[in-house]
Amino acid sequence: MTDGRYGEDLFEPGHPEEAERIDAGALVYDPVTTRRLRALGTGPGSRCLEVGAGTGTVARWLLEEAGAAEVVALDRETAGLAALAEPRLRVVTADLTDESLRLGSFDLIHARFVLMHLPERRRLVARLAQWLNPGGWLVLGDALEVPDALDVASAYRRVMDAMWQALRTTIGTDTSSVPAYPHFLREEGLRNVAAELVCPPLVAGSPLARFWSETWNRMRPALEETGRVDASVIDEALDYLASPRLAELGPGMVLAWGRRG
C-alpha cells in the first residue's frame, strides 16, 4: 500500500485551480447529496459533521437551507472555508485518521469522496458510526466506476483507467469496497440501511465534463507514469470530453446511509 495522501502527492490545496475543480464537482453532486440529506430529515436543531468539507458547499447548505444548529467542518486543509463566517460553523483542521481527535456526537455525519482515498476506510466507518447520537444518520458517498466492457481501447477509456490506476498507486484510492458500504453500516449496528447509485449525465461543456477535464490535466504526469497513456492519448480524451460526440456513462456516486437506533 502506498504512503501517499490526497492533498499531498496529488491535488494540492494551494494549487490555483484546485478550488475550481472541487466546485465543479460540487455543482454536480451537491444536489444529489442535499436531496438525500433532506429526505433523511436533516433540519433545524441538528448537530452535523461534514467530513472532508472542501470549499464548504455542503456545510453552507446545512447551515442556510437545512437550518442546522451547528456544523463541524473537518478537513486536513481548511483554507477553502475561510469565506464561511458563521457562528454556527466550527472549522476543525485535522486528519480523520488522527486517533486523538475528539469532536463529540452528532445527529448527522456526512463524508463524500473521502473514505475511498483512505486505506483505513473500514475502521473509519466504525469510528464515524460511534460518533452518532441515538437516531443520528451516517451518510457515506464515494465513487463507483460503471465501465463499458465493450470499450477497452478508446482514448476516454484508456485515460479513465489510467486515472484509477494512478490514484491507487499514488495515494491509495480504492473504490472496490464501495458497493459493500451498506454491509459496513449494518455491521456497525445501524438501522434503516439503504444505498443508491447516481450517475449524473456526462455532457460536453457541463460541470461534470469540466471536473474530469481539470482532474486529468492536474494528473497528467501521474497518468503518463502508468504506461497506459501518453500525451497524445490524454489530449484526444480531453478533446472528446469537450466534443458533441461525447457519449459515455461516466463514473457514478454511491450514497449509503444508516441510522443509529
Helix content: 25-40%
What would you report as the Rg, rounded to the nearest angstrom?
18 Å
Q: Rough shape?
A: globular
Main sheet specs: 7 strands, mixed
Report the average pLDDT across residues. Answer: 93
Strand content: 15-25%
CATH architecture of the domain at 18-146 and 173-199 and 250-259: 3-Layer(aba) Sandwich
Question: What does this protein structure show overall?
Answer:
- It is a single chain.
- The chain is an alpha/beta fold and 261 residues long.
- The protein has a domain at 18-146 and 173-199 and 250-259: 3-Layer(aba) Sandwich (Rossmann fold), CATH 3.40.50.
- 36% of the residues lie in helices and 20% in strands.
- It contains 8 helices and 7 strands.
- The chain has a 7-stranded mixed beta sheet, sandwiched between helices.
- Helix 1 packs parallel to helix 2, helix 1 (18-39) packs across helix 6 and helix 4 (155-171) crosses helix 8 (231-241).
- It is globular, with a radius of gyration of 18 Å.
- The mean pLDDT is 93.
Annotation keywords:
alpha/beta, 20% strand, 261 residues, 8 helices, seven-stranded mixed sheet, single chain, globular
Topology summary:
Elements: H1 18-39, E1 47-51, H2 57-64, E2 70-75, E3 89-93, E4 106-112, H3 121-130, E5 132-144, H4 155-171, H5 181-187, E6 191-198, H6 207-218, H7 220-225, H8 231-241, E7 252-259
Parallel strand pairs: 1-2, 1-4, 2-3, 4-5
Antiparallel strand pairs: 5-7, 6-7
Helix pairs in contact: 1-2, 1-6, 4-8
